[in-house]
From TrEMBL:
CDD domains: LuxR_C_like, REC_NarL-like. GO terms for molecular function: DNA binding. One of its GO terms (biological process) is regulation of DNA-templated transcription. Residues 164-229 form the HTH luxR-type domain. Residues 27-142 form the Response regulatory domain. Coiled coil: none annotated. This is DNA-binding response regulator. InterPro entries: CheY-like_superfamily, NreC/VraR/RcsB-like_REC, Sig_transdc_resp-reg_C-effctor, Sig_transdc_resp-reg_receiver, Tscrpt_reg_LuxR_C, WalR-like. The modification 4-aspartylphosphate is found at D78. Keywords: DNA-binding, Phosphoprotein.
């Protein structure tokens, strides 16, 4: 009867006893702008026998290049804003379609979580997860399981399920004002001067708009806003 697993004779086995070949380690790439967190994560995962950290990056450009070159089994990533998190998912998927992508983040906006799920992310993990939970999620994803791993609170999960598919009804007055100026072709810098607010505030509001409308670009956000009678 044929064995269930492939067997081979290893050179370090002088008696020629058949032993199974060890499973290859899952290759993990990290993307996080926080250096201390990223280095700690690399050290922790490096102690797991079945995992191998092949790259760690602090920005999306480097991560996209590394993913295109290395094609890691798993990409574990975070971003400064929810909109950058969505952009990261799209860029990394384009660079390495076969990689399994897990978001490890503090961002917990219900529309963002729902959008990530809708775009086929393989896992959403709060940064409050334990080491065992994180390793479990990576192993499930690297096994090419059809399941999505969601490790957060029931409250966040239920909020994501109950979030409006577009979130258009939840666009604030300030977000609508910024959308109107975007539709006129103004840049973030020009909008900040027009509304007398910081450019970073404009960027944050636009990120929220992208999440609520499920938009992938400024033009897409304007088109969706017009469709939803917001403009």
């Amino acid at each position: 009867m044929k064995p269930d697993t492939d067997m081979s004779i290893r050179a370090d086995n002088p008696k020629g006893v058949s032993v199974p070949e060890p499973a290859p380690a899952a290759q993990v790439m990290l993307l996080d702008h926080q250096t201390l967190f990223r280095e700690s994560l690399r050290e922790m995962l490096g102690n797991e026998r079945e995992l191998s950290v092949v790259a760690d990056c602090d920005n999306l450009e480097d991560a996209a290049r590394a993913a295109s070159h290395l094609h890691p089994s798993i990409v574990l990533f975070d971003a400064d804003t929810p909109s950058e998190l969505l952009e990261g998912l799209q860029r990394i998927r384009a660079a390495s379609p076969e990689s399994r992508i897990l978001a490890l983040t503090f961002h917990d906006d219900p529309w963002m979580i729902r959008t990530l799920i809708g775009q086929g992310i393989h896992g959403y993990l709060s940064k409050s997860v334990s080491r065992l939970e994180l390793v479990y999620a990576i192993r499930v994803a690297s096994a090419r399981s059809p399941r999505m791993v969601f490790i957060s609170s029931y409250e966040k999960f239920n909020a994501a399920l109950g979030a409006d598919r577009t979130g258009a009804a939840n666009i604030s007055r300030r977000e609508r004002d910024i959308l109107m100026l975007v539709s006129e072709g103004l840049s973030n810098s020009q909008i900040s001067k027009r509304l007398a607010i910081a450019e970073g505030t404009v960027k944050r509001h636009l990120g929220n708009v992208f999440i609520k409308l499920g938009a992938s670009s400024r033009i897409d956000a304007v088109n969706r806003a017009v469709t939803a009678d917001l403009l």
